[in-house]
Amino acid sequence: xxxxxxxxxxxFVQEKEAVTLDCTxxxxxxxxxxxxxxQPSSGEMIFLIYQGSYDQQNATEGRxxxxxxxxxxxxxxxxxxxxxxxxxxxxxAMRWGGGSNYKLTFGxxxxxxxxx
Amino acid sequence: NAGVTQTPKFQVLxxxxxxxxxxxxxxxxxxxxxxxxxxxxxxxxxYYSASEGTTDKGEVPNGYNVSRxxxxxxxxxxxxxxxxxxxxYFCASTYHQGSSxxxxxxxxxxxxxxx
Lengths: 116, 115
What we know:
The structure holds 2 protein chains of 2 kinds. In chain A, the strands form 3 sheets. In chain A, strands 2, 5, 6, 10, 11 and 12 form a 6-stranded mixed beta sheet that branches. Chain A is globular, with a radius of gyration of 14 Å. By secondary structure, chain A is mostly beta strands. Chain A has strands spanning 3-5, 10-14, 19-21, 24-26, 33-39, 46-52, 60-61, 64-69, 74-79, 88-98, 101-106, 110-115. Chain A starts with a strand and ends with a strand. Chain B is mainly β. In chain B, strand 4 (31-38) and strand 5 form a beta hairpin. The radius of gyration of chain B is 14 Å and the shape is globular. The mean pLDDT of chain B is 94. Chains A and B meet through strand 10 and strand 11 of A and strand 4, strand 5, strand 9 and strand 10 of B.
């Protein structure tokens, strides 16, 4: 069964430092997609970054990069130069399925706190 | 503004009452989803609709029903609310054709409390 595991319930980082949020996934499908979302205390879901299973290079979006290690089934999010506004819940998710039926499965999340 | 609109934003129900959560998107998306978010559990899929006229169960469908009224609207109904259904509910939509897709858009959520 498809599953996303985030093993870090909470993480702390100093402002301006880099932080890595861990995500491992389990699927037997050859085609899938991996996402990271940010959820601030206001509650909305904010898309950060996407990596397709066939993408050769790791995805990057500004200060966000996705460290995709396919053989290890990991898709860690790296945030460089952390800012106070990065304090939020972060979710890893996987898109899977086929034909016209695709689902998006989420991990339980990591609460990131950026300290000044 | 284009996006996913959920109503209501907040609701308090008494145990046994029924209600319908509404979701509408104006982006011509073909797939729509309902999730619930509980502390420490992430977002769990309740039901989804891959296309107009079809609905399927997700991970936690018990106690819920859905209707894909048309391409724009996907409603979630609680027939007899229970305290265990206290949660934040998110609707999401996406457009996909074959293996290509164009990202997911989430609504702002409905905070439901069942007392």
